[in-house]
Amino acid sequence: MDMEFSKDWVSTTFRVRYAETDQMGVAYYANYLVWFEIGRSEFCRGRGFEYRDMERDDGLCIIVAEASCRYKSSAHYDDEIEVRTCLREVRKRVLVFGYEVYRLQDHRLLAEGETTHVIVDREGHPRALPEKYREFFATDVKAG
Fold first, then answer.
1. Best label site of 22, 71, 97, 130, fewest CB within 10 Å?
2. Which of residues 13 and 48 earns the better pLDDT score?
3. Does the domain spanning 2-143 belong to CATH 3.10.129.10?
4. From the candidates 2, 8, 22, 78, which is the catalytic residue?
5. 78 tagged catalytic
6. What is the DSSP string of the chain?
7. CB-side exposure of 49: number of CA atoms within 13 Å?
């Protein structure tokens, strides 16, 4: 997987694998949520930290509280796709990520979506996002 980083978006590209498709070679709809997770992980890495560092060093997890995906067109086996990820909102205990999925061959938008995450400790209790992580995220998103 390749990754590019810009101020607002992190862009990750990869090919649709055979195991991600149905008998007709069309990507199964739930895989888009997996691709969102790939984009989210690369977004964090692009901002200077790995998600597992937060788990290991601070005992915090970013759990998915809500996910949405609007499908525009189908991805097919061996299509090269791009997942673009941005951070739309940072609040004390909540992060909201946005996603766009494109087929690179024709630059067609395949899907767009959003995930809302709550920061929790190992026992599942909501916690504030530590300042050191707030600094990794762009200051041009809505902060609360």
1. 22
2. 13
3. yes
4. 22
5. no
6. -EEEE-SS-EEEEEEPPGGGB-TTSBBPTTHHHHHHHHHHHHHHHHTT--HHHHHHHH-EEEEEEEEEEEE-S--BTT-EEEEEEEEEEE-SSEEEEEEEEEETTTTEEEEEEEEEEEEEETTS-B-PPPHHHHTTS-TTSEE-
7. 14
